[in-house]
Design goal:
The chain has about 230 residues and is an alpha+beta fold. It has a domain of about 60 residues. The chain is built from six helices and five strands. A three-stranded antiparallel sheet has the order 3-4-5. It has a two-stranded antiparallel sheet with strand order 1-2. The longest helix is centred in the first third of the chain and has 23 residues. About 20% of the residues are buried.
Length: about 230
C-alpha cells in the first residue's frame, strides 16, 4: 500500500485570514469591555411611559443616549442599513403591519475592521407608525441581544405589576425636575438648533421654559418625538 493512501485530507481553511482574526479579536475585546461598563450600571430605569396601555419602557432615545457615550469611549462606530421591509396582514382595528429587517454594523475605528448582524422588528399600527415602530423594535433587539442590556423589559414576564428596581437616585416612578442628563441636553440642542421655537412650544407641555428644568422622562420624550419626525421627513 502506498503511503499517500494513508494521508488525511486537508482541513478547510478558516474563513478569516490571520490578519483579520487579529482585528476581530481586538474588536471583540472592545465589545467585552463595553459590556463590563454596561453591567456596572446595573438594571437601567425605564424613562418612558405608554399612556394608552399604562406601562413603563426603555425607549429608543434612551438606547441611543446610552450607547453614544459607550461607543465613543471604546472606539467603536455604529451604522445601520435597511435590508427589507415587508407589509403583513394586520387586524380589523390595526390593518397596517410591517416586518422590518435591518443590518447593523459595528466598526473598530482603530483598525477599520467591522462585524455585521441582522435583526428584525414587527409592528402592527395605523398609518406610517408601523414602519417606525418595526425599525425601533429591530434596533432594540440588536442592542439588547448584542450587549445584554438589563432593563427588565422581559417579554416572558407575566406578573401584572413587575417589581421596580430603581436606584436610590430615582426613588419614584416620576423623576424629579432638573434631572436631565448632559447627553440629553446636548442632543436636544443639536436636534433643535434650527427650530428653537418648536422646542419652546414642546416644553410648554411640561410647563418648562428652560432645557435644564426638564427631567429624564420629559427630555427622553422630546428627543424621541423629534427623531421620529426627522425619520419621517
Amino acid at each position: 500500500m502506498e503511503t499517500n493512501e494513508l494521508q488525511f485530507p486537508e482541513l478547510p481553511e478558516s474563513s478569516l485570514k490571520k490578519e483579520d482574526m487579529g482585528f476581530n479579536s481586538k474588536l471583540q475585546k472592545k465589545k467585552n469591555e463595553l459590556r463590563k461598563d454596561l453591567s456596572e450600571k446595573g438594571i437601567l430605569p425605564k424613562g418612558a411611559h405608554n399612556d394608552y396601555d399604562n406601562y413603563d419602557y426603555f425607549s429608543e432615545a434612551q438606547y441611543k443616549e446610552l450607547f453614544i457615550g459607550l461607543f465613543s469611549k471604546h472606539g467603536l462606530e455604529f451604522d445601520s442599513t435597511e435590508v427589507q421591509v415587508q407589509s403583513i396582514p394586520g387586524t380589523d382595528k390595526q390593518p397596517f403591519g410591517i416586518l422590518a429587517t435591518m443590518k447593523y454594523i459595528i466598526t473598530d475605528i482603530d483598525t477599520g475592521y467591522k462585524i455585521e448582524s441582522i435583526h428584525s422588528g414587527l409592528a402592527i399600527d395605523k398609518g406610517d407608525k408601523a414602519i417606525y415602530k418595526a425599525k425601533t423594535g429591530a434596533l432594540k433587539s440588536f442592542f439588547a441581544s448584542t450587549f445584554l442590556v438589563a432593563t427588565k423589559d422581559d417579554p416572558e414576564r407575566d406578573d401584572e405589576k413587575p417589581k421596580r428596581t430603581y436606584t436610590k437616585t430615582v426613588s419614584s416612578s416620576k423623576p424629579k425636575a432638573g434631572t436631565i442628563s448632559e447627553v440629553q441636553r446636548k442632543r436636544i440642542i443639536k436636534l433643535f438648533s434650527d427650530s428653537k421655537q418648536e422646542l419652546q412650544d414642546m416644553m410648554k407641555k411640561y410647563n418648562k421654559k428652560n432645557i435644564n428644568e426638564l427631567d429624564l422622562k420629559e427630555a427622553s420624550d422630546i428627543i424621541e418625538i423629534k427623531e421620529r419626525e426627522a425619520n419621517h421627513e
